[in-house]
Structure formats: C-alpha cells, structure tokens
Specification:
Structural class: mainly alpha
Number of helices: 2
Low-confidence stretches: 1-14, 95-100
Radius of gyration: 15 Å
Distance between the termini: 25 Å
Strand order of the largest sheet: 1-2
C-alpha cells in the first residue's frame, strides 16, 4: 500500500516521515552533491549520531548555508543571502516531529 493517502478533501497527506510524498528530500539531503554545488556548505557537513551526513540545525550559519545550497542546486538561484542575524526560514524538507 502506498504511503500517499487521500483525506476527505482529496488532499494528499504526508507519508510516515511527516513529509509530503513529492518532497524532493524525503530520503534526506544529498550533502555531497549540495557541497559540490555550494562549497561554503562543506565546513558544516559532518556525520551525525547515526553516521549519516548532516548539519547542526541549531546553528543558524549552517542552516543559512544549506538554504543557499538548496536554492543554488535546485533552482539556479546564485548569490542568495539574507542579513546576518535575520531569521532564516525553516528548511521545507524537515519533518515536523522528531523520531529520535
């Protein structure tokens, strides 16, 4: 059975990970590819407690670098920036609840 389920109003519900079935990042981020597209992300990428490449999402600079890498790799937006100290919107590929 598919993880895509229809609700009463015909909208797709998220899959078990809390992400929409068409989300490009349901299986996680391709950090090597993102670093290749945006080298300033490299210092923030490291193995997490599960041995998977990740960033420290509590670090605003890491989140900003990940946003820039995603925008550049997937949307060809080069040179994106926001002022230092400005709120960086959350990454849309992250689940809303933690499973750990």
């Amino acid at each position: 059975m598919s993880s895509l389920q229809k609700s009463g109003n015909n909208q797709a519900k998220p899959n078990g990970k809390g992400l929409h079935p068409r989300n490009l990042h349901r299986q996680g981020y391709d950090f090597p590819s993102l670093v290749k597209a945006y080298p300033p992300l490299a210092p923030y990428v490291q193995p997490n407690a599960h041995g998977n490449l990740s960033i420290e999402f509590a670090n605003p600079r890491a989140v900003k670098a990940l946003n820039a890498a995603l925008l550049q790799q997937h949307y060809n937006i080069v040179g994106w920036d926001i002022p230092e100290g400005a709120l960086c919107p959350p990454i849309p590929g992250r689940p809303t609840t933690s499973t750990t």
